[in-house]
Design a protein that fits this description.
41% of the residues lie in helices and 21% in strands. It is an alpha/beta fold and 286 residues long.
Length: 286
């Protein structure tokens, strides 16, 4: 039976990840050690480098390491991802939350607080991270979070329960906006699939091969779901309601034109930290 010291196991993991072009090999080696129950916190590698690790634990670590080397996202391996300072369960049924989507939440929260007690519809809730964050930071909001995938809704339900937002969030299985009543929502918000088919083929393997394609691609031009959301929002939004969307790096002008063609007003976009116009919003005025 093989016995290794903690410092040796850490070095083995870090070197393997580095050879396979993982951007943060040291950090991810720590994370995998923790997930393997080798360590309780990162300082142990330095505080107890000669700690002996048994074969069973080594095997567990090496299995996780092999998954990461094959480009499986670290969030799926450990089963969670942080978003807006809260931790969410994730699995391959849902898109992994991205930092840039926090801007979508910021813009929606600003509108929600101006309204006071808004009824918000989120289209394509996935893990539920957007809905939970909105509910957590806007106490008077009520949120309907929809998704076409029951597996995604199952994950969202776990996250809603975890963060104790059951009283503010209603989860529902729905295909886009067709099942919702006229003039019923103050805000429609979505991080829709907006990647083109061509762009999808060029994505990194850890996105293309593991994350749900249905949550990523928006048809040939990347705009098919965006067009549908904007068009159908006119029916379900109250007079003066808002549609808020995350968009791709080169889509601002096209999406602005879609809003204009659908007779929305007060159209504006917001740049993310990389200078990309990432969120666009517009008001519906009957």
């Amino acid at each position: 039976m093989q016995i290794m010291q903690l410092k040796e196991l850490y070095s083995l993991g870090k070197d393997n990840l580095s050879r396979n072009a993982i951007e943060t090999p040291g950090l991810e080696a720590y994370i995998l050690l923790s997930e393997s129950e080798v360590i309780d916190n990162l300082s142990e590698v330095y505080a107890h480098p000669e700690k002996e690790i048994d074969q069973e634990t080594i095997n567990k670590f090496q299995n996780l390491l092999e998954r990461r080397v094959k480009k499986e996202p670290i969030a799926y391996i450990i089963g969670e991802k942080e978003f807006y300072s809260k931790t969410y369960k994730v699995n391959p049924s849902v898109l992994i939350p991205r930092p840039e989507t926090e801007l979508l939440v910021d813009e929606t929260l600003e509108l929600a607080k101006q309204i006071g007690s808004p009824l918000i519809l989120e289209i394509g809730t996935g893990s539920g991270c957007i809905a939970v964050t909105l509910a957590s930071y806007c106490n008077q909001a009520k949120i309907v979070a929809s998704d076409i995938s029951q597996r995604a809704l199952n994950v969202a339900k776990e996250n809603v329960n975890k963060h104790s937002q059951n009283d503010k969030i209603t989860l529902t299985k729905a295909d886009m906006l067709s099942s919702f009543k006229n003039d019923s929502f103050d805000i429609v918000v979505s991080n829709p699939p907006y990647i083109t088919e061509t762009e999808f083929d060029l994505l990194d393997p850890e996105v293309k091969d593991f994350e749900p394609k249905i949550a990523l691609t928006g048809g040939k031009d990347g705009l098919c779901y965006i067009k549908e959301i904007i068009s159908d929002s006119r029916r379900i939004l109250k007079d003066g309601g808002w549609c808020v969307l995350e968009i791709g790096y080169n889509q601002r002008k096209e999406v602005e034109n879609i809003f204009t063609d659908c007779e929305f007003i007060d159209i504006s976009s917001t740049k993310d930290l990389n200078g990309i116009e990432r969120v666009i919003k517009a008001k519906w005025k009957k």
